[in-house]
Structures are given as C-alpha cells and as structure tokens.
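Hi Prof. W.,

I finally got the Bifunctional protein GlmU prediction working! I wasn't sure whether to trim anything, so I left the full sequence exactly as given:
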Amino acid sequence: MNIMGIVLAAGQGKRMKSKLYKVLHKVCGKPMVGHVVTTLENINVTRSVVIVGHGADAVQSYLGDRVEYALQEQQLGTGHAVLQAKALLGSEEGLTIVICGDTPLVSEETLQGLIQLHQQKGAAGTILTADIDNPRGYGRIIRDTNGTVKRIVEEKDCNDTERLVREINTGTYCFDNKKLFEALSQVKNDNAQNEYYITDVIGILTSQNEIVEGYVMQDAAESIGVNDRLALSEAERLMRERINRKHMLDGVTIIDPAATYIEADVKIGADTVILPGTLIKGRTTIGEDCVIGPQTDITDSTIASGVTVKQSVVQEASVGNGTSIGPFAYLRPGADLGENVKIGDFVEIKNAKLGDEAKVSHLSYIGDAVIGRNVNFGCGAITVNYDGFNKQLTEVEDDAFVGSNVNLIAPVKIGKGAYVVAGSTITSNVDANDMAIARERQVNKAGYAEKLRNKFAAKKRASKQNRE
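And this is what came out:
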C-alpha cells in the first residue's frame, strides 16, 4: 500500500509569542514537526510533503531532504494548505495522512490504527477523533445510527444535542489520495474568515455517498495541538512520561520519573539506574548496568556499560566500560575515556583521549591531550594547552605518574613509565622511565617570620594614623 503524508506547518503561531517559528519549538529535545515527521517515517510513508509558509527556510534547514516541501504563500485555511501539495501528490494512487505539524504526541500506533480502519471499511476519508470530558471549542463528530460519520459540526454551530457530544475532531485524517484532491477542488471559502477548510472535504465526500469513518484514539492526550506555551509545557510533560515509561518497560530503573528528563532520541540499556534530577539529552546512548545521577546532565554522548556518573556534566563525550565519573566532573566535547578510567571531583576533560585505567582523581584539567593506559594524575595537575594563540598537544604515555600540582606546558611529551615530581612545571619532554623535577629549591630563613609580622604591623599602624 502506497501511504503518503502531508504535514501542515505553514502557520505563524502568534500565540506562542516567540521569534521561533511555532513547529520548531521543542518537545523533549526535538522540534514538534520533527516528532511528526519521525512518526510518519515509522509507519513507512513513501513520500512526505511539509506545507511551509512563515519560517519556511528554518523548517527546511531543520528537516533537510527527509521530506518534500510545498509553499503556502498566503494562509487561506487548512484546505488551501493541503491543496498546495497537489502538484506533488495529486496524481498518486494510495492513502494520504493529513496531520498538523504542532501535534507531536500522535503516535505511530494511533496512525496505524487509523489506516487499518480506513482500509477495512473501504472509506474515502477517515477522521482521527478523541473522546474527551470537556469538548468545548472543538468540532464535534456526528455519526448516524450505524456509527458512520455524517458530518463535523463546529462548536458555534452545534445545537443543544450536538453540544453534548464528546467525540471531537483532532485535525488528523486519512484519505484516498485522489478523492482528497478531487474534493479539495470543490471546497469554497464562503465563510466569515474567507478560508478553505479541510473539514469541508468530509461534507463533500458524504454528499457523494462516499464512506467516511472516525477512528477514536485510545489516549486522548495524543490529540493535543500546541498553540501557546501552556500547551507546549503540557505536551512536554506528557511526552516525558511516555519516554520514561518506555525506558522502564525496556528494563531501565528510573527512581523518580517526575524528576527525570530524558529526550526523545536517547537510548538506554537494560539494568541501568537513573537517579533523580538527571537530564539526558540529544542523541545520547547509554549501555547496560550503569548508574547515572543524581543531578547529572548528559548531552550527545556515548556511555558504555557499567559506567557510574555522579552529579556531573557530560557533553559530546565518549566513555568506556566500567569508568566512573564525578561527583562534580565536567566532560567537554572531545573527551574520550577508555575502560575503567576514574575521573573524580572537580575534574575537567576537554578534547582529550584517556587510555584504560587512567586516573584523574580530583581538581585537575586535561585538555588537548593523549593520555596512555594506567596513567595517574595527582591532585591539581593540569595540562597547560593554550599559549594565548594556539592550542597545543600534551602526550603522556602508559604507566606514567604525574604528581600533584604539576603543570605540563604543551607541547610536551611524558614518556612511558616516567615520574614527574609534585609541584613541577614541565616545559621539556621527559623520556621513558626518567624522573623529572622542575621546582625551586626550598630555602628556610631562621626567625624571619617574626620580622615579617613586625613589618606588616608597622605598616598597618602607619596607615591608620594617616587616615586619622
């Protein structure tokens, strides 16, 4: 079966009160129109056409060649918007899903159910509907005694009986493609807004004795269309619950789902535990048997299995099996940690590769470096990678020891098994198995501390007298 999709994404979204085009506002880390397009891809549509208008360049920049585009230069209603796809899809045989770009919660299971009913009934059009407790403001679905849809009645046109109907139009449809465009050619704009509405297609099809059905979605929350920031926050909450629920059903332990924020494209392995206050964003992948959190922020990173990350920030980094991070560590873009590495408190790693079993336990900065296996960095040791003009490379080979408060002035290389004494400032290469010490010899001056105290006290008295 040839299935196509038309995504309505031409509206400006004034109620969002934002410089950002409405369908590009994010829900769980992904623009709303991205959720819709992904859902269409997951039901194997052969072609998707996104109707763009305001913000067309921004939408095209985001979606790229995943879809085709049709421009609605003037916003003259939903029917007019769909009609803009006629040049691309009008001659195609098959089914077309029409869906709004601001409905990110509609699931692939719901669309599959819509298509299945449409095919089973041999319908020309099928409306995705929802049964809600408070239908005020929505178009009502009016059915005949056989359950077939007769018409959609807008709120302002409902009589007393129709106003009691709880089944509403969600604005998503499945049509026989050719019958859709044939009916669209007959839609008129003789209404108060002088616009062409897709809902009029339903009336045209029923007047031609075509079968029109309604598929009631199982979860009415999917019907939310985002028109303002309040609806955006509600969609975010519902999407987050859906994402967390899926991870938990797949074997992930989330201690407090209400305090855990996992974005849509994140993948997490079984038996991993996510502690409260954790944000996992972008295209992050986390393996099995990890403990993540609490209060941890991970973005676009790859975390292997058996990893612990406590109260830390990880951005565009790669972490090997069995590695521990934190608390209060910061892995910046380009951090690449091997297996069983230890990154302790207040350690920052940037654009650096650390070999297996390396240890940077506390208060250190490693940037623009290649660190070998089983290297130990003492407390406060850093790579001095920037000379004010260029970033320079530090290399530390396997089994080397770098003592506390050592400055490695790049470019510099520390050889295999070398030992750098605490407090040294290293400006030259250290060969394998050598010991390097680069610090001033200590000098003790007998009794001089008392002289200093007397000197400082005299200055303090003089300063006080001058003020008086």
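The chain has two domains: 3-223, 249-436. Does that look reasonable to you?

Thanks,
D.
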